[in-house]
Amino acid sequence: MTLSNLKCTLLLVVFSFYSADGYYYHFMSECRYSWKDLRDMELIERRIYNKVEYARYNSTLKKFIGYTDHGVYNAEKWNSDPAVMAQMQAEVDRYCKHNNAIYYSNILEKTAEPYIKLRSAKPASSKHPAMLVCSAFDFYPKAIRVTWLRDGEEVTSDVTSTEELSDGDWYYQVHSHLEYTPKSGETISCKVEHASFPQPKVVDWDPSMPESERNKFAIGASGLVLGVIIAAAGLIYYKKKSHGRILVPQS
Ligand SMILES: *[C@@H]1O[C@H](CO)[C@@H](O)[C@H](O)[C@H]1NC(C)=O
């Protein structure tokens, strides 16, 4: 997965003016790009009066476009002024490229590997007797692909997945469900593709007893053994006591 297929926008409201009667004016700058080398950087600067965008500078077009009579009038005026034009176009490097290079190295290129958990659960429908849940936790960035493999072949039917859920702390989680009918000897795997992995990570389902089940089993078995020992000890004690009892003849 590459970041090149993401569309990035850095938004900044440059300034706003408010007046007593509630009318206001503001500029909004957007730096739009989709390549790491910022080659397609586009600056869009919107000029807005009372919530209506009346003119916009588009650095790809290298000019202003007006959307209202007032906007068209001003766009013509600004477009015919070489100083304004040079200054606007210079903002692409000075403002957009400069800030986004920093933004890239500080945020966009950072990744956090997901922690993957594969478990069985009760199927949601009665179509299949078994269901597996593959969860990926605490990953960044959001883009991820979770798929299922049956003996190495991708399975697409009876698969449902949640969206990438935001944990609210920059990390995300996602859960994918596969409902299936187990066959002996097959291998079911969950495949996760994420920017933090050099290669997709494949986790095979181990149908043997999971650890928590093994623990419960061990506790139960120890309890049983202990119970048997105590019962046996009690029985022996009781037998010994009743043997040693002297019967006093009654007269
Ligand atoms: C800027 O102009 C280019 C070229 O016409 C266009 O493809 C692009 O969508 C425009 N951007 C905006 C936000 O209007």
Automatic annotation (TrEMBL):
InterPro entries: Ig-like_dom, Ig-like_dom_sf, Ig-like_fold, Ig_C1-set, MHC/Immunoglobulin, MHC_I/II-like_Ag-recog, MHC_II_a/b_N, MHC_II_b_N
Transmembrane segment boundaries: 217-238
Membrane topology designation: Single-pass type I membrane protein
Main location group: membrane
Ranges where the Ig-like domain occurs: 114-204
Gene3D superfamilies, A to Z: Class II Histocompatibility Antigen, M Beta Chain, Chain B, domain 1, Immunoglobulins
Range of residues in the leader sequence: 1-22
Subcellular location: Membrane
GO BP terms: antigen processing and presentation; immune response
Full protein name: Ig-like domain-containing protein
Species: Megalops atlanticus (Tarpon)
